[in-house]
Amino acid sequence: MALIGNSSSPLPSEFLLICFPGYQSWQHWLSLPLSLLFLLAMGANATLLLTIRLEASLHEPMYYLLSILSLLDIVLCITVIPKVLAIFWFDLRPISFPACFLQMYIMNSFLTMESCTFTVMAYDRYVAICKPLHYPAIITNQFVVKATIFIVARNALLTAPIPILSAQLNYCGDNIIKNCICTNLSVSLISCDDITFNRIYQFVIGWTLLGSDLIFIILSYSFILQAVLRIKAEGAAAKALSTCGSHFILILFFSTILLVLVITNVARKRIPHDVPILLNILHHLIPPAMNPIVYGVRTKEIKQGINKLLRRLKV
């Protein structure tokens, strides 16, 4: 490992991830629920993707958007959780300089891609309920392709400077990151440069992307609620709300954990340092584990598709 502070090697060849510095004795116990959640997330999302792929009745824009969400969840899980479990089980704390910043980039870009996907799904539900006659003409396969390009391009480009700015800092002190993952703040704090611009950029971009998505989602559901309240037919309002229920629950999972994470980081001095670390890990596990289960339980078409898939596997 290159010595940090050596003038001939201004950048470290690797960092050391120290998970839960004050509670390392119970890391093995924590690894059990985390590994079970990881297996659940990977298995549930893989099952959902396979079901949508094999069931012809699910080859519709709404389910294609759900497939995008599952793919994003799988990538986020694979990017974060295996390394965390490797630290817990085998004490494999070193992470190379490129791998650390690649992890940072994937976490930032895919997290905002997921938020943007929820926004597109909210628009899909808005059109389905507020403009049902125009739905087949507006929400098409071509719309999904364009939305996917927008989701990837917007978030991949705007979040790219975050790891680039961190990678350009001089790390002339300690190379120990007091976190299980390479978050921008955890990494940049161990540099000996001024990180003000780095932090401002992440703050502005994060709140611009996530904030604009949240505003759009709130507006979409406000219009949906107004349209539902105007429905006179018996049972029609409940049916309309039921079509939005799964999506709303997923947004709640995503937003609640993210909000708690933000609050704990703001109140960093008042709470143990390990709490934000644990919440950051759970944010990469709980929504991916719950998203396919919620849709599988609440959507009749997906339940039928999964049952058909299970019958095929038995045969």
UniProtKB/TrEMBL annotation:
Keywords: G-protein coupled receptor, Membrane, Olfaction, Receptor, Sensory transduction, Transducer, Transmembrane, Transmembrane helix. Residues 44-295 form the G-protein coupled receptors family 1 profile domain. It is found in: Membrane. The chain crosses the membrane at residues 30-52, 64-90, 102-123, 204-228, 248-267. Pfam families: 7tm_4. Signal peptide: none annotated. The keyword Transmembrane applies. It comes from the Eukaryota. Its main location: membrane. The keyword Membrane applies. GO terms for cellular component: plasma membrane. One of its GO terms (biological process) is cellular response to lipid. PANTHER family: OLFACTORY RECEPTOR 56A5, OLFACTORY RECEPTOR 56B1-RELATED. This is G-protein coupled receptors family 1 profile domain-containing protein. It comes from Sarcophilus harrisii. The gene is LOC100915065.
